[in-house]
Specification:
Structural class: alpha+beta
CATH topology of the largest domain: Beta-lactamase
Strand content: 5-15%
Largest sheet: 8 strands, antiparallel
Radius of gyration: 19 Å
Length: 324
Amino acid sequence: MTAYSAAFDWTRRHVDAGRLPTAVVGIATAEGIVALDAFGATGPRTATVDDHYRLFSITKPLVGLTAARTVERGLMTSLTPLRSALPEFAADDIQLQHLVSHTSGIAEPPLDAPQGLRAPLLAGATARDFAPGAASRYSSVAFEGIAAMIAHTTGRDWVDGIAEWAPSIGADGFTLDEAANPHEIPDAAAAGLDKDRFLALRHPGAGVLGRASDLLQLGSALLRNEGDVVQPATLAMMRRPITGDIPRLAPYPPERGQDWGFTWNLRTRAPGLIDQDAFGHGGWSGTEFWVHPTAGVAWVLLSNQAQRPGIDIDELDNAVIAGL
């Protein structure tokens, strides 16, 4: 781990300062995992590298890869309308491309959505923040629509879709099963999340549990880009910016230098990064997963703190790249 000492020092510093209760940090290349360590404790529970965490929105690219595999099979395209899977969705202008790129305009409910996810999704046929494709506003409820399209075209639940490809690359820890015993989030309630209500959703935009090694194995497979998860042409499609120069609405302002591809967050214009050739995703509790194809490295941070003042993830990304 000596080459990446700055990245591990960054993590240790924030855990020691109390900004993060725990953190598991790992780095992978196309050959596999090259560095992995755990820091801190959740109450009396000391973190280990094999612990499960709530991935929250890192769930989105996992579902995106599953949807992309469906595209590969010729069962739908990025232009397929949501209404093809949900006839009760009373509009035909929202397509898969809008759902995967946060450009659908569907009004966003809270992450723990008291009324469930299907009702606000269907309401988005008429109740919208903007016309599809006119702007970008981060959306988790859109992934309920992607999940419906996966189920409609394949006859399988989105969770089963992930289970179809993940174990083959050594990522056999992705699950929704609470028996995995993920680290709890001490400030979840204070940050406004009702845990029981959230778990009942089986949220296709935020619900997966996983280990650092699962994400690192995925990162390694994507760096190899040999068709282990999706074909190279498919990954290239997923990395094409969809959002372009349309307005970015909160919480991702233009100055962050971020585009959306097919569920991937693309940091190709991020002014704070040494290497802007990056795609990946973050999650609500401080989880991060990023892949740098040109540098040939992927990295993961798993943590469990919803409110994180003083944390700048670009610092960690730069420390990983500098370790090369």
